[in-house]
Hints:
361 residues, alpha/beta, Rossmann fold, SH3 type barrels, Elongation Factor Tu (Ef-tu), domain 3, 3 domains, six-stranded antiparallel β-barrel, five-stranded parallel β-sheet, 9 helices, 24% helix
Amino acid sequence: MTEKKPTILVAxxxxxxxxxxxxxxxxxxxxxxxxxxxLWSEAGKECENKCCTPQSMEEARKSAETIGYPxxxxxxxxxxxxxxxxxxxxxxxKGKTPNPCVVCNKDIKWGLLFDKLNEFGADYLATGHYVxxxxxxxxxxxxxxxxxxxxxQSYVMCMLQQEQLQKTMFPLGNMLKTEVRxxxxxxxxxxxxxxxxxxxxxxxxxxxxxxxxxxAPDIAQPGNIMDRHGNRLGQHQGLAFxxxxxxxxxxxxxxxxxxxxxxxANENILVxxxxxxxxxxxxxxxxxxxxxxxxxxxxxxxxVKIRYKADYQxxxxxxxxxxxxxxxxxxxxxxxxxxxxAVFYDGDELLGGGEIEHTVF
Length: 361
C-alpha cells in the first residue's frame, strides 16, 4: 500500500519561483493547495504593486489551472498595512532604516499564512525562496545558504523558529535560477520569462522617499546638519531621506567628502563626518532569534551580514542575555545601520540574527 503524501500549502505570488515550486511538487505527487496573499497597495497604484497586481493574480490563477491544483486568495491587506507598512513608516520616523522583508516573513508569511495550515488541512508550507534546509542529520532543522549564491535568501529567514521550520519546505534551495526558468518553460507556465522583482513590494515604481512623503508627510522635517563636535554645517531635508554611510546628496562644501554618521531623531539632527569617522568596530543587536532555539553559552566567531546585500564580515559575537548580543568586527565596517538586521553564519549555516540597535564608534 502506497503511503499517502502530506498535503502542502504553496505560497504563490504569480512569479516564476513560486509557480515552479507548485508544479514540481504536483509532479512529485504531493496534494497541493495554492494560496496567494492579497496585500495592501496605495490607492490608485494597485497595478504597480510588485507582488500582487491584478496581472500577477491572473497569472497565478492560470498556472493553477495549467498544473491542476486549487487556488485561493487571502485578503491580507489590512494586517499587512498595520504590521508592515506602518512599521516601515514608523521606523523611518524614528530615524532608523527598516527591513520590512524580514518582518513580513516573521509576521505575515510565517505568521498569518503559516497559521492557515490547519484551516486548509495542510501539513507543510512551501515557498519559492532560495534557502536550504537540513532535517535529516539532527532533530533540529538547520538552515543553509542556497546553492545559487546570487539568489540566496537565507538572510531574510533569520527570525524563523524551529516549530515553523519543521513544517516548511524550500524546494528551490538546491537549484540555480537558470534551472528554475528551464522548468518553468517545461511546465508551460505563463510567467516563465517574467523578470524578478527587486524592490519593496508595496512601494510602486516611485522611490521610497516619494512613498514616505505621500504616506507620512510629517517625516519630511528639515533640521540641522552637524559634525561630531556640535558644529552646524547646514540643513537636511528630513532624516528619513538619508542612510548611514551615504555620501551623495548631503550638499555641503567641505575640504573632504562628508558621510552620514548618525541620525538623531530626538533632536532631528543629521551627523556627518569623514570616511575615517564612519568606521564602526562594534554594534549592539537586539531581539535576537537563534535558529536552533538555544543561546550560545559563550562568545564565538561568525560571519556577519549587516544588511541583505552587504558582504560577509568576520566578527566575534558575545551574547548579553537571551535577546541581545554585542558584535565586534575584525575589521571596521562603514554602514552598520540601526533598524537593519545583523545576521550570523557559520560557513553556509544560518545561526540567527537580530535588529541593529546602535553602533559603537
